[in-house]
Amino acid sequence: MQNLETSLLYAIDGSLIDSVLSMHWADYRDDCRKAKVHIGFDINRSIPSKIFLTDGKADERPFVSKILSPGQTAVMDRYYQCHKDFDIWQTEEKSFVCRIRENTKKTLIKANPVKSGSIVFYDAIVLLGTAGVNQTEKQLRVVGYRVDNKVYWIATNRFDLSAEEVATVYKLRWNIEIFFGWWKRHLKVYHLIARSERGLMAQILSGLITYLLNLAPNRPLP
Question: What are the extents of the domains in the chain?
Fold first, then answer.
């Protein structure tokens, strides 16, 4: 487990914040305004590391490169599946563990052995996508596993981890969902005090400071 214990893992996700019609910068729909926060959550320390604020329609995928630094590993859900981005992140020397759609085409390069009795049923080096259409240029690894009759397919360039460790890393992505739930429930982030983009960011950062202060008595930050 040494490789996993020393990994710099960052769950990356976005979340919408209900806004009011007077917040014209928070574009979402003609009859609705929403802002969106894009957060990199340091799984090792259970704290947000980077945050960006945009209008509600902004794509979340471009923020992966802004949040992640070389040597770090992003942990992401299926929305972030983009074969072109998978190539870009590898070129940037950034790692990822990303759930992919079950029907994604996989061109087998090399099959890895699977342990008997493991939750993992598939482990291979592949090219993802259709040749000439959206196929990755760089090889990556796909791990398939089953938990409680639910099947997960994970794409990653972490070739150093065991297949079971890849499954464990993806499970840790849930930590950012727990954070979002706590943040919205206890800090009432939807009750807007400010209307400007800068003011809303100040309110968000105040909430994050409160989160860290609540965390400190339970587990000192490194």
Answer: 1-76+173-216, 78-164
